[in-house]
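Model: Ready when you are.
Researcher: Fold this.
Model:
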Amino acid sequence: MQPIQLFDTASSTYTYVLFDENTRDALIIDPVDDQVERDLATLRQYGLKLLWTVETHAHADHITSAALLAEHAGARTAAPAGCGIKTAAVQLAHGDVLNFGKETLQAIHTPGHTAGSMSFLWRAHVFTGDTLLIHGCGRTDFQSGSASDLYDSITKVLFALPDSTTVWPAHDYQGRTHSTIGAEKAGNPRVAGKSREQFIAIMNALNLPKPKRIDEAVPANLSSGIRHDADGPTLPADGAAPPSAQHVQPAQGYAGDVAPALACQWWQSGQAVLVDVRTDAEREWVGFVPDAVPIAWKNWPGMAMNPEFDQAIKAAVPAGRKVLLLCRSGVRSIAAAKRATELGLEAYNILEGFEGNPDATAHRGNLGGWRKRGLPWRQN
């Protein structure tokens, strides 16, 4: 039996779904928030009940959808105890086992890329995260990385598995999907035949650029993907207006971030056009803003980019008006604001989104958002 392997092009991240063929109980490893609708569709396609979301470490190149999947699918979150992901329901130690149906996933502590990094063993398959890649390995120059620890994790822990064990990495940048322990022992150019000192020298000489999303991704991933739109301030649970409610917060790549109240004021006064970039399904199920212009950033199902976005948003915004972008979590509206700016529009992201951030129980609607703030909305 093989895992279901899914790929996020933007971050070159592999996500894996494993399941019990009889009970249909499932778990997902390293899910990506931009792909949550894809992953939910995959669960429906295979008739699966998601029991667990599992992280190999706190990623620096994408934001996890663990909290979103906990909210939508009722899954429990699990993460390595040494990664500081305190919102995870289960803090995994070396040797711990997660059960899904009659299947089991065993945690293997493989530090080096980060101090808490883990790999996971299922049947004759090992999911290595950023520890062991296909003919490569994860970097060690940030997030408590250690080249010495990584060498031990690869050569003493992973290479102790049978040569036939299939290796499923968290990333690949050349279109490769999997390898084997035997193949990596024999041909991984960073590790095969290398002494510890040689390996450390190779890693120290990599001089890789800083991950583009590290400042956004790591804080969010330490909270299972719970984040604030555009890295906005934490909002009080009592619904009070945020401190910057009447001010534009500066942003990179677009005009700025605005609180829901200010966005509504601009919209109702005619200064700006309000564009809802959520999917038709989200507006139908969760609620919508009357008279907002619906232009999906990505199309449901599948979450492919909307090829008509550019033309539609240019047609929707008259000359001289601002455009306000609204989504659920801030990821799509920020991306849409950047694209609108590239198209020559004065574009702003609306902080908190339509539903606000998830609370400690991963429920939305309690910690801010357009709807929570009492602004115009309806539900079918």
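Researcher: Now this one.
Model:
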Amino acid sequence: MINKIIEGYLPQLTAIRHDIHQHPELGFEEFRTSDLVADYLSSWGYEVHRGLAGTGVVGRLRAGDGVKSLGLRADMDALPIEENTGKPWSSSVANRMHACGHDGHTTMLLGAARYLAHTRNFNGTLHLIFQPAEEMLNGGARMVEQGLFERFPCDAIFAMHNMPGMPLGEFFFQHGPFMASMDQFNVRVQGRGGHGAIPQLTIDPVLVASHITVSLQSIVSRNIDPLEAAVITVGSIKAGEAANVIPDSAEMKLSVRSLDRQARATLLARIPALIEAQAASFGAHAVVEHVNGTPVLVNDEGMTRFAHRVAQQQFGAARAHYGTKSLMGSEDFAFMLDAHPQGCYLLIGNGDGEGSCMVHNPGYDFNDECLAAGSHYWGALAEAYLK
């Protein structure tokens, strides 16, 4: 029943996805995209609320006299990447690209929105949450801070992300920690510059930064339980310009990931302490700035098993997989689950054909063949939860 109705929407959904893809917008700049989303929701009879986190959109739809409420979330923002797919619907904006599939996530939820508004085969309140700024800017946190769940109460909340390399249109679930925390640090190592031929009169910040880089790995190997996952990556070290000049300072950028809340707390405490001590041992000084952070994404077991059952019932056991390995990528839906822990984040396979290289790649493209399955799944989940 659902699949037949959704199939009738596919020409429109494909056009919507291509439109969003051609007009990518970075976090908190999704003005055109949020207008598009709001216009479609309004045309289908939703109460449309705008302004949370600036460009966020929430559509509310009620049916029957049920007291339960459900939240479904999709992200809308793009990335600062120059697209090279060569597709007819490629980005029309320089150095802007939907390289993570948020165009597809938004479109799948719009497909379900149209279906649910048309059939109204549920009993309760539906909140469709279109979130800005998932990519590194914590738009989910800002929506929560600005009263998302006070204004739009949800008994449960769900989100879905495409995953290249996983079988097309299949669904993947795991309860407990599913996506890693992610924290960023900026570090400035202040030394004393001078001539490269007279190093004894300097405090070399490049040498200090190098020792810091190596020493940081001792935190993972000696301060974190070896059965827990943790990654410290020094992604950038910048210092000096000339081969014969020892610079005054060096700048470092770190990313830190973990799948355990206590491990994350240990990392956040040990990293600044080690950096400052290591710098001091050379007579240098280090300033450590924790730029931003996303918590571990933890799926509620009851809601995850419920979500898995819906996929099994709609698509069969062969397309609904439980026990998927956790990922070291991060996702700011974690803020919503932290604030409202009854929920689940799941994956839909994007396939392994053309354009299905890993996300955040200039050759990536969301697979339009996912649109029907994703929209179908959201519609079925809403009907099952709000019955």
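Researcher: Key takeaway?
Model: The chain has two domains: 2-179+296-385, 181-294.
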